[in-house]
């Protein structure tokens, strides 16, 4: 009898202790903390921990500390980490190629255009395609529009001919570089600086906040403001973990994610503008601002990627986004 009482007491104690343990969320990403994604992740941590009164603890691992680009999605599916915010360009290799629609050159003229997709049924339908992969999509976060950089001045699209250009793991970005006569090279973000330094690659494309915080200005002489593509993020969570959370915690985290999304989107544009000023101040990279005629030449050179890749992405999806944003490839 006494032994049973002790066992019951021990079990109750263990239960109480476990209940005291915070739920830990490992949030891994590949960029620096002082970037739109880095700051938004920190903000999410702050408000999520406050609002759950410490019942949730968010551990952030920036700069590919835990996992590089290609590894992080698998780690999420395995439950080695609970949350990620990869770019929307990174879902092709896991078979959700529809997300590569975001990589179509000059598809979006503005953040408002992007939000017509991410804040609507198209954005939700894309996230739902992740569920069969054991992933739940929580939100879209903005970053910005990409310039192109190299150690050769890129004024005209043909100036990129023959250059080895680093891209993310997207077939649409691959087609984009080939449309310029360049040689696309998929590489993890954490390897880009060294790749440029050693000449394994000649150039790349990335938002200025990444170009600056990855110190690419030390290894790139020119940065051309082409605005040819958009980088944004899908904030995702391991489905089993998410559905296993106490409902009140999940609701609180959903609220915190909403506010972190507003924080991310409100800050992204300015952060990239500040980073561009910082790049200029280094005096190491010459910033090339294209004239309207020059930009039109880039649009004309890259529009063919839309027709070439529509089959892979899904024609209906591409048409639906054209309708939503008013994009017309014939008008470029
Ligand atoms: C990249 O590989 O360039 C991106 O992952 C960067 C980012 O902002 O996540």
What does this structure look like?
By secondary structure, this protein is an alpha/beta fold. Helix content is about 50%, strand content about 15%. It has helices spanning about 1-20, 35-50, 70-80, 110-120, 120-130, 170-180, 190-200, 210-215, 240-245, 245-280, 290-300, 305-315, 315-325, and strands at about 25-30, 55-60, 85, 135-145, 150, 165, 185, 205, 220-225, 230-240, 285-290. It has a six-stranded mixed β-sheet, with helices on both faces. A five-stranded mixed β-sheet has the order 2-1-3-10-4, with helices on both faces. The chain binds (2S)-2-hydroxybutanedioic acid (LMR).
Fraction of helical residues: 40-55%
- N-to-C series of helices and strands: HEHEHEHHEEEHEHEHEEHHEHHH
Q: Compounds present?
A: (2S)-2-hydroxybutanedioic acid
Task: State the distance separating the first and last CA atoms.
Answer: 83 Å
Describe the largest sheet: 6 strands, mixed
Low-confidence stretches: none
Structural class: alpha/beta
Strand-residue fraction?
Answer: 15-25%
Shape: elongated
**Radius of gyration of CA atoms, rounded to a whole number:** 22 Å
Mean pLDDT comes to: 96
Strand order of the largest sheet: 7-6-8-5-9-11
């Amino acid at each position: 009898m006494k032994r049973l009482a002790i066992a019951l007491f021990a079990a109750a104690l263990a239960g109480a202790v476990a209940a005291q343990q915070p739920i830990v969320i490992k949030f891994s990403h590949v960029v620096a903390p002082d970037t739109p994604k880095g700051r938004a992740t920190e903000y999410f941590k702050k408000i999520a921990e406050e609002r759950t009164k410490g019942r949730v603890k968010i551990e952030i691992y920036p700069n590919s500390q835990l996992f590089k680009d290609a590894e992080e999605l698998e780690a999420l599916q395995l439950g080695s980490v609970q949350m990620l915010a990869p770019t929307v360009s990174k879902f092709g290799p896991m078979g959700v190629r529809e997300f590569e629609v975001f990589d179509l050159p000059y598809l979006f003229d503005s953040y408002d255009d992007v939000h017509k997709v991410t804040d609507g049924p198209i954005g939700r339908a894309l996230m739902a395609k992740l569920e069969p992969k054991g992933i739940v999509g929580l939100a879209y976060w903005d970053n910005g529009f990409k310039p192109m950089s190299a150690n050769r001045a890129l004024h005209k699209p043909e100036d990129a001919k023959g250059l080895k250009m680093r891209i993310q793991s997207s077939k649409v970005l691959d087609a984009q570089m080939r449309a310029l006569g360049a040689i696309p090279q998929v590489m993890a973000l954490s390897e880009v600086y060294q790749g440029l330094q050693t000449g394994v690659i000649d150039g790349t494309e990335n938002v200025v906040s990444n170009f600056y915080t990855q110190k690419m200005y030390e290894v790139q002489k020119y940065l051309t403001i082409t605005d040819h593509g958009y980088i944004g993020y899908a904030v995702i969570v391991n489905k089993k973990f998410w559905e296993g959370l106490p409902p009140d915690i999940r609701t609180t985290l959903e609220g915190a994610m909403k506010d972190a999304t507003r924080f991310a989107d409100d800050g992204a544009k300015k952060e990239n503008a500040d980073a561009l000023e910082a790049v200029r101040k280094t005096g190491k990279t010459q910033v090339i601002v294209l004239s309207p005629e020059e930009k039109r030449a880039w649009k004309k050179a890259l529009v063919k990627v839309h027709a070439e890749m529509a089959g892979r992405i899904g024609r209906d999806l591409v048409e639906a986004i054209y309708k939503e944003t008013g994009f017309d490839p014939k008008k470029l």
